[in-house]
Amino acid sequence: MISYNPKDWVRFLFSFHKTETIRQLFPLLIFISIYSWGIVYLEANYLKLSESSHAKNITIMHSLLGFAISMLLVFRTNTAYDRWWEGRKLWGSLVNNSRNLAVKLNSILPNDDDKNRAFFKKIIPLFANELRAHLQNEKTRLALDSSPHPEIVGFDTSKHIPNQVVMLMMNKINLLHRDKQINDFQLLFLNNELQSFLDICGACERIKNTPIPYSYSAFIKKFIFIYVITLPLGFALSLGYITIPVVVFIFYVLASLEVIAEEIEDPFGKDDNDLPMQRIAENIGKNVNDILN
After folding, report:
1. What is the DSSP string of 30-98?
2. Which of 76, 109, 215, 258 is least surrounded by CB atoms within 10 angstroms?
3. Average pLDDT by consecutive 10-residue portion of the chain (293 residues)?
């Protein structure tokens, strides 16, 4: 995710980031420019339409449809941002629940129980790393480090790895309970955080695996395209060659909103505006290590 100062107007106005929509839409902007020039040239030099031509009334259609397309784009961007923000809230909950679990374990486990403390110092951050890899569809598991804990074995990559991580944690907690190192009340005390890990995973999977309905997304793109390619037909008579920059700018605004929505509707990818899951996972590891030391 891009870190920036929201008050730095100069940077926004005069710098172009590689994710700027103008870079992505540049080929289409060139096409719209050439197309608009062709329509203006055709109407002015071959068709020789007058100012009183009915073609000039086409702009009335655009005025009527402008409200409809603006409402569609507002709904589209709001829906995409809601998905992005829900993903951020879920990862924020993962941070909080990881800390809470570490704090509770720190109060339960004896200070000299280095073996169990080392286990949880590795396994709690491991869930965040594996969830990130799972959501980004990575096939290889993040290596623990040069000296992995003996109780954390290699995972079966053909199965759901976040499930396996939580199973390890749950098995360890139940083993401590069986050995009377954790009493019944403490077992219930830890259960909420353990359960929340898979709740968060499932909610993230829901966002990841349920895109905006295809028919809705396809309709918006077709609507924008048809709306823009008919603009020069009416504008050419009243604006002349000024039609070209006007139509290009209108297309840029409308298409950019759709491109932005496409990028943020899946917050778990690797785009610059997606969630910084790697950084969040690293912070979880640092916080858990500080608590359980």
Report:
1. HHHHHHHHHHHHHIIIII---TT-GGGGHHHHHHHHHHHHHHHHHHHHHHHHHHHHHHHHHHHHHHHHH
2. 215
3. 61 60 86 92 74 66 84 91 95 95 91 87 92 79 52 74 90 89 86 91 92 88 91 82 92 91 89 88 93 88
